[in-house]
Amino acid sequence: MKKFKHTNHLISEKSPYLLQHAHNLVEWYPWCSDAFEKARNENNPIFLSIGYSTCHWCHVMAHESFEDSEVANLMNDTFVCIKVDREERPDLDNIYMTICQIMTGGGGWPLTIFMTPDKKPFFAATYIPKHNRFGQTGMLDLIPHVRDIWITRRNDLLYSAKEITASLTQISHYKSGEKLNKDILKKTYDQLLLNFDMIHGGFGSAPKFPTPQNLLFLLRYWKRTDNKQALEMVEKSLTEMRKSGIYDHVGFGFHRYSTDAKWMVPHFEKMLYDQALLAMVYCEAYQATRHKNYGETAQEIFEYVLRDMVSTEGGFYSAEDADSEGEEGKFYLWNYEEINKLLASEETEILVRLFNIKKDGNFTEGTTRTKTAMNIFHQTSSIEELVDCLDMSEKDIKNSLKVALNKLFSYRIKRIHPYKDDKILADWNGLMIAAFAKGAQIFDESRYVEAARRSVDFILESMHRSDGGLFHRYRDGQAAVLANVDDYVFLIFGLIEMYETTFNTKYLKTALELNGYLLDHFWDDENGAFYFTPDDGEKLLIRKKEIYDGAIPSGNSVAMLNLLRLGRITANPEFEEKAVMIGSTFSKNIQQSPSAYGQLMSALDFEVGPSYEIVIAGNSQAVETKEMIKAINRLFIPNKVIILRPTEQETPDIVRMAKYTKHQKSPNGKVTVYICRNYTCQSPLTDTTKIINILNQRNTVKI
Length: 703
Known about the structure:
CATH class of the domain at 9-171: Alpha Beta
Low-confidence stretches: 366-370
Shape: globular
Radius of gyration: 26 Å
Mean pLDDT: 93
Oligomer: single chain
Helix content: 40-55%
CATH superfamily of the domain at 9-171: Glutaredoxin
Distance between the termini: 66 Å
Largest sheet: 5 strands, mixed
Number of strands: 21
CATH topology of the domain at 9-171: Glutaredoxin
Strand order of the largest sheet: 1-3-2-4-5
Strand content: 5-15%
């Protein structure tokens, strides 16, 4: 067992990130009252460092400075030092990241904040090197300078902290504006088109993120308008990402982002939320186009999660690191000699041609790695092109490719693996539950339902508080940290998808209960929309609201769609009114740059319609009922709710939650479908072809 020379106050924490720093020479505290009391008593400023366990530059700064006695001594003499896991405390990260953006114009992790003992910041940065470098002041010069100012000009720092906090309060205040309408959908599309990379797919340049919310919106925009270019943007992006270096061709799943515009060199960490959101996009793209490559990619993502990211209790783990053996990407990179030794000659030739494998390595840009002979799998040729240059059929090439990749996987699994962050977060699990449920609907795969069910059961058994609320994080037998808005809305999202997959009303009932708790403790009665933290949570600098749809969609954006769906399922107009208020609350900000709110635009697309309420009345166990559900699930109808009214029960549970279904029965015992569109209901139908034709109508809307 490894012996450590030093242990600090993080040693009793559950967060994997905090435990990574428990033996730093810095005398770290977790975010706690003891740390702030010590700072007040000693009249010292606070050094706040926020990061997460799979953050590459967090590791770099830790090794360079926090494990270095010279820097650590300076920090301990000058500050009370606090470490925060941004994934465990996103409420703190949201506040102090906004401050960093105000003060520096940018942000990222590790996030470094110097602040007063009453939590008001006066300095912000991200990674800080040990020594002065590239025009940036290093820790060894910065800390003595700050200490000198704290001693000699403290009033200046306190005034600055007061002004910064006032700016934060001002920009975090949202005053309700005009109701959003369908015109902004066109503006969103135009902005996305302007920022679209026609050559490589995706949006913007380096670093390039997958931005699944934008792609989900574009699928809906295509469905609404029959705009072919909207669909082409989705297909180009999904195809290029699947071929690219950010996709793990050997073990499946997506890396977090590309360091270059060509999707060639990834940042190698794998995040649960990326797998969930991208799986949903590929599922919907398959639904919309029936192109099997999209379906296969979604199923491969699910395979990766089921294999590597599920706890024994059923919850989904958070992430896998980019680094192994102290080097970023080492687990995923290959040299030519390895491949040639492991594979048959024809298998090697297929991989060399398909993935541009080179003896001297196939990448240099976007990386500082010294091993230049390494290769990233990045598909540069098609199977069809290989048929033309190899004396093999397409079927034989595909079979050989599968065998070759399986051999490499079996070899790679013996390598030293990247660190796995095994904490379970309610919000990210909610997204993964939704993705698996959606996959089960589209692929009729029972394993996906079971994976989602186990996660739901685990959260409700182990992370559900006695007062009806949730905990945010579970690890090592302990659930802790009051849940934030994302935990509730993402889990509600997953529960709605689970209801529409299984039609087990317990999921709908739980979704409504959690939605009630959310409205009671997070809703702003004065100005509308949801706060990020509950009314009984820790008092911080401010109580923020989030709306920007970044790497993860905002809680308010997802809540807007949840409220619309629950409102339609239960015929509760109050839910729909709340959804409209969310859009109005942020409308002034949204109007300025609507493409930054892709998830909210999908919710708005549902709100303005056309949308459907579909009630299937039939025996829940009958083959014809199940076949009707499968037929509807094959269609890409994003703006719908679907309800099963079991006719074998006189008063099924769904009637108690959706009273209008009481009289929707199946005449003569034949499965019957009731379709309402934009608050207008059609006659009951039993003919599957007619039902599909009605639901599949594009009804193009010019906007």
